[in-house]
Design brief:
GO cellular component, one term: nucleus
CATH architecture: Orthogonal Bundle
Helix content: 40-55%
Number of domains: 1
Organism: Scheffersomyces spartinae
Protein name: Cyclin N-terminal domain-containing protein
Strand content: under 5%
Number of helices: 13
Order of helices and strands: HHHHHHHHHHEEHHH
Number of strands: 2
GO molecular function, one term: protein kinase binding
Shape: globular
Mean pLDDT: 76
CATH topology: Cyclin A, domain 1
Structural class: mainly alpha
Strand order of the largest sheet: 1-2
Length: about 300
């Protein structure tokens, strides 16, 4: 697969989704002095067995790995659509993102960080340079390269990234190592060369990103199945919801306050139970047959690890 290049109206803050209203107070309130040190000390004493929000296992009580990856990918596409509102081939963009992640074996952490960079660009509101304005594919590629370099000591060369994209430096398509260098440089300039993220901010960001992503889910048909229903990105319903999130990200969310607050995806998920999850799989009736002691033992063995 080779790369090929191909203003949203403001919406009043009124009628914001409940999830945004829930997040607003803690993100708008200036943190008390010294609170950062408290969190840093708390984090440093956390046990080694505590799951990190950067891992999909952290969300396993509510989402399996497939669902979590699907939500992250859909969120990346949605955030890119904020920057490229006229881009209308979302399935193609989603395929591109999935293939880049698969071919490069990019970690979940790098994707979460790339989404953080996208939000910084949304908040910055700068005009995109020529190298990035043609297609959201170029911006995503540049940001995932930066995120991968930030997360890992060893990373691909530009020639390797070209191969991942399905092209070579000798192709006549004009997509070369120099093109990648330009894309990376322009992404760095848009980020003011600041790719750093504080660890506590990072943990809260991952929870926040999961909340944003799950809010874009219409239905989770089964708690344990892979099926998730998303809105058509060309639909009015999706456009309204995405504009609400855009308004919140630009006008209300202060990323630095994520250093001092505590956001948990679990709290959000529990608050919306019975609204999006419409079934939890087959539940056997307790009255359709005579149960014996073996049935009880079998049920207990499924619930209790021995």
């Amino acid at each position: 697969m080779a790369l090929s290049p191909d203003s949203t109206p403001d919406l009043a803050v009124a009628n914001l989704p409940q999830v945004i209203l829930t997040l607003s107070p803690q993100n708008l309130t200036p943190p008390p002095t010294g609170l950062l040190n408290h969190h840093q000390n708390h984090d440093s004493h956390s046990g080694p067995n505590i799951l990190s929000p950067t891992s999909f296992k952290y969300y396993n009580d509510h989402l399996n790995k497939y669902q979590f990856n699907l939500i992250l990918t859909n969120t990346a596409v949605s955030l890119l659509k904020v920057i490229y509102p006229t881009f209308s081939t979302e399935p193609e963009l989603r395929f591109f993102i999935v293939e880049i992640l698969r071919r490069s074996r990019t970690s979940i952490q790098s994707l979460q960080l790339a989404c953080f960079y996208i939000v910084k660009l949304i908040q910055g509101g700068r005009k995109l340079p020529l190298s990035l304005c043609k297609s959201p594919k170029f911006l995503f590629l540049g940001l995932i390269i930066l995120a991968s370099k930030f997360n890992q000591d060893y990373n691909f060369s530009f020639k390797s990234w070209l191969k991942i994209c399905g092209v070579s430096d000798s192709d006549n398509g004009g997509f070369t190592v120099q093109t990648l260098r330009t894309i990376e440089r322009d992404c760095l300039q848009l980020l003011d060369y600041n790719c750093f993220i504080d660890q506590h901010l990072y943990n809260n960001w991952c929870n926040f990103l999961a909340i944003l992503g799950y809010d874009l889910v219409v239905k989770q048909h089964d708690l344990y199945a892979n099926d998730l229903q998303f809105s058509d990105m060309q639909s009015t319903l999706f456009g309204v919801k995405l504009n609400l999130w855009k308004t919140y990200l630009i006008k209300n969310l202060q990323l630095d306050t994520l250093k001092y607050t505590q956001i948990k995806f679990t709290d959000y998920y529990n608050s919306i139970l019975n609204t999006k999850v419409v079934s939890v799989g087959e539940v056997k009736s307790l009255f359709n047959k005579k149960h014996n002691i073996d049935d009880m033992d079998s049920s207990l063995q499924k619930k209790v690890k021995v």
